[in-house]
């Protein structure tokens, strides 16, 4: 059930009747007609822009269309009033029985809020994709949470979702990892070592060095890189990916695919992707203009193999092969996305850190070229996370060397708090993570506020059962006994859930789920507080079982939607607060 979609359908039906009656001209496009909550709740339950968007193409005044539409809509028993506001917006008030139907739908339909928006469509969401050179840090945490919640949201909206991690194990950073592991290996043999600039000094590599010693003994001691580099590179990469999988597991993130960049080299996959672009006339030999601003001292014009990314909206064409024949970093990324396109996905999403902003246009251009503009690529950038404690910047770990590890963050506040708070801001907005604020019990802490609403509802359900109230099949409760304006407002908020899911899924914005849950929790807490002053609003009416069942049916429905929303965010709903 999607009440907003249902009422919009009623509006469209009325517009078709007005067209058949000659009030509206034939051939009007109703695609931009919307039905949504009014900006001011005092104006009604829903508002439609139909008269405003149709006035110009119809050659009529908005108010004339609004008056004719209002007259038709009032024949619908669900609509109590249709009032014209301003130049032609139409505000609708719905019968209280409509909200009772919403509550019953929540209680009886296990898929309430789910959508068929993505039915039949395959979508790939790539996120985290950190270099396999160490455990995940706080910056990765935000991308992991955002990507995972987005994948869950899209699945909830009907898409066939693949969650993917791209292992960057083909570049020079894994050689640096190998050298760092080798130093820890020598250390495990009792040698004093020095970590030169560029190597990784984190204590997390100590175990890798010890494990390498266990595996090969002293076979590599005193040997040159030509003997041990390849083996230690693979060994170190596997060890770091094991750490990363542990980190993701702590956060509740499960990947469907781990795709190795290294698998693209020496297999013809890069060459095949470039050949596809070349066949389309998009690869050429050329010399790029010098970079803007102050030139690097070693810059010199040189011929390179270039991709015509400017044909697809990029600022400049991009090199894919250096003058010495080596591939640039961009080439394997092209091949990787060519593989995604070849796997038959209808859409791609990449979640990058903010430092990859300069990579967006070229990657979009590559996918557009590879798919002949058939497969859209949306790249979401996640901004930095700043940690605070007692109002001061906070550093948590020395084990990682120069960064703060995900596992320390999760150990400090738990996965649920971590995940929810990471989604309390839009992905491209900076995020402050204040340990005092995310654990305080107040309305200003969204995590607590939503979980407290869930716990309060479960507490009422337990007390009702203890009092002998049958709370088994609440869908049959007489919901006409819960029609106070505050109760109807909470039911109206429940009705927004299916619409909100579709908006969030279309915009790839899982933070909207967190915002909605906070608003829904506010309705619950507001009604709870009203009960302190007005006994008729209390959920447990010991002398009136039918009223108790009606009120508990309403808050049980709130609990169901909170559970659905938290599930999308990857958070376990609280049944009690400790």
UniProtKB/TrEMBL annotation:
InterPro entries: aa-tRNA-synth_I_CS, Arg-tRNA-ligase, Arg-tRNA-synth_N, Arg-tRNA-synth_N_sf, ArgRS_core, DALR_anticod-bd, Rossmann-like_a/b/a_fold, tRNAsynth_Ia_anticodon-bd. SMART domains: Arg_tRNA_synt_N, DALR_1. Residues 5-94 form the Arginyl tRNA synthetase N-terminal domain. It is an enzyme of class 6 (ligase). One of its GO terms (molecular function) is ATP binding. Its main location: cytoplasm. HAMAP family: Arg_tRNA_synth. This is Arginine--tRNA ligase. The gene is argS.
